[in-house]
């Protein structure tokens, strides 16, 4: 390793100055997936770039679940039937443990957590699209701070682009990132509006491509339109797979097994079914043991606008629900309104029974305590509007909430204001 680093440092010091890249190849292998190759012959350096349309209803983005760790990027793409995949976070070889927080298939990895040295990419399905965001290293993110419905998280360092500006300071002494010498690199970037995801792999430590510094890669991604960008594991881990083949040039000459990965799949995503019972006080035993607790005449509204009214069975059943965090709001006179969510898995029946309690709605009726079934509790970005989803703050209403993002209004204050307004309208409440 010391010999390699010394050779890279020498190459970085003696190579011609950064001159700029020319695109030498482009194609559209699948709708919503665009591929390019960029060359800077002065360095020399070669970048393989894939641009993903996150607004497409037929695009899904996955991060590795813990039980899929320690395999090659090609194998992970095969397991997910994905057309595109790249390697993920730097990791401890013993046990393939990512250095930062990792989440896959909506479940967090054991023995992983965020730290002040790592940025994180988080992703989730929202309606008919994918929502992704990059949080900077100084924003410590726990599972509770992730947006509701987060399905995947990858960590990496260093942060390359912040709010469309290339970072100016890099730790040149970090042996993991070797940020200040030209090397093979993998990176992800998100556009300011959150509609585009870029995956970049830089070939390096080869005569045809020495690689790039972290700053040079940041400049390249900013010039493509990135609002936020972060590096993933580099060196011999850097790998880009397209349609089952490695299209990058790994520095070892062979593909390496790594801890986790990021994969992109194109194709019609099978819908799921959302079924549940509406029960008084508790859902336990409501279906069989205590049928008298089934609530008929309750209006169940799915977050896509569809409604059903429960009959004597107390059941609702929505078909053809897009795979995502789906929420139902249940209302019935004499009961407190409740919104409850569950992650929809493609092609499966997903259960989401709701317990209602007798009473009247407070002014801000909505989600009951602890009822939001997502990883986090906030439907927006974990950072502020500058660094959350898409790097420019995608705001979308959370279930039963007022707004998304960091600035959630104070609940007691809202109650007081609502009470005051009802008094102003002449009520005697």
Q: Could you list some keywords that capture this structure?
A:
429 residues, mainly beta, five-stranded antiparallel sheet, 29 strands, 33% strand
Strand order of the largest sheet: 1-2-3-16-15-17-13-14
Count of helical stretches:
4
Structural class: mainly beta
Most strands sheet: 8 strands, antiparallel
- Radius of gyration, Cα only, in angstroms? 24 Å
- Ranges where pLDDT stays below 50 over 5 or more residues in a row are 1-17, 366-429
Range of helix content: 10-25%
Query: What is the residue-averaged pLDDT?
Result: 84
Task: Please write out the topology.
Elements: H1 2-14, E1 22-30, E2 33-40, E3 45-53, E4 59-63, H2 73-80, E5 84-87, E6 91-92, E7 97-98, E8 103-104, E9 107-108, E10 119-126, E11 129-135, E12 152-156, E13 159-162, E14 165-166, E15 185-190, E16 196-203, H3 214-224, E17 228-231, E18 240-242, E19 245-246, E20 261-266, E21 272-280, E22 299-302, E23 307-309, E24 315-321, E25 325-331, E26 338-343, E27 349-351, E28 354-356, E29 366-367, H4 411-424
């Amino acid at each position: 390793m010391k010999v390699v680093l010394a050779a890279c440092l020498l190459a970085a010091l003696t190579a011609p100055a950064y001159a700029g890249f020319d695109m030498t190849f482009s194609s559209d292998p699948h709708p919503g997936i665009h591929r390019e190759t960029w060359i800077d012959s002065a360095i020399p350096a070669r970048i393989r770039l894939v641009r993903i349309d996150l607004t497409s209803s037929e695009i899904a983005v996955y991060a590795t679940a813990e039980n899929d760790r320690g395999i090659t990027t090609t194998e992970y793409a095969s397991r997910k039937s994905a057309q595109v995949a790249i390697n993920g976070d730097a990791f401890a070889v013993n046990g393939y443990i990512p250095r930062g927080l990792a989440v896959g298939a909506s479940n967090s990895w054991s023995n992983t957590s965020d730290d002040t040295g790592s940025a994180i990419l988080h992703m989730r399905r929202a309606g008919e699209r994918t929502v992704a965001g990059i949080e900077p290293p100084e924003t410590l993110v726990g599972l509770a701070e992730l947006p509701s419905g987060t399905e995947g998280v990858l960590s990496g360092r260093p942060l390359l682009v912040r709010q469309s500006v290339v970072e100016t300071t890099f730790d040149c002494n970090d042996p993991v990132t070797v940020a200040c010498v030209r090397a093979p690199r993998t990176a992800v970037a998100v556009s300011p509006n959150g509609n585009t995801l870029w995956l970049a792999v830089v070939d390096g430590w080869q005569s045809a491509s020495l690689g790039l510094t972290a700053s040079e890669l940041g400049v390249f991604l900013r010039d493509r339109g990135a609002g936020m960008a972060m590096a993933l594991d580099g060196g011999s881990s850097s790998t880009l797979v397209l349609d089952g083949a490695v299209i990058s040039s790994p520095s070892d000459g062979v593909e390496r097994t790594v801890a986790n990965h990021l994969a992109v799949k194109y194709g019609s995503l099978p819908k799921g079914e959302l079924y549940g019972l509406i029960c008084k006080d508790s859902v336990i035993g409501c279906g069989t043991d205590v049928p008298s607790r089934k609530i008929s005449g309750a209006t169940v509204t799915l977050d896509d606008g569809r409604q059903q009214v429960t009959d004597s069975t107390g059941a609702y059943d929505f078909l053809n629900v897009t795979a995502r965090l789906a929420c139902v709001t249940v209302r019935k006179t004499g009961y407190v309104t409740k919104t409850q969510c569950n992650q929809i898995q493609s092609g499966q029946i997903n259960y989401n029974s709701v317990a209602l309690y007798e009473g009247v709605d407070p002014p801000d009726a909505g989600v009951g305590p602890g009822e939001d079934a997502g990883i986090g509790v906030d439907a927006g970005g974990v950072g502020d509007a500058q660094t959350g989803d898409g790097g420019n703050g995608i705001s979308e209403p959370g279930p039963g909430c007022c707004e998304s993002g960091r600035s959630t209004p104070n609940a007691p204050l809202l109650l007081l204001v609502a009470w005051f307004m009802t008094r102003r309208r002449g009520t005697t409440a």
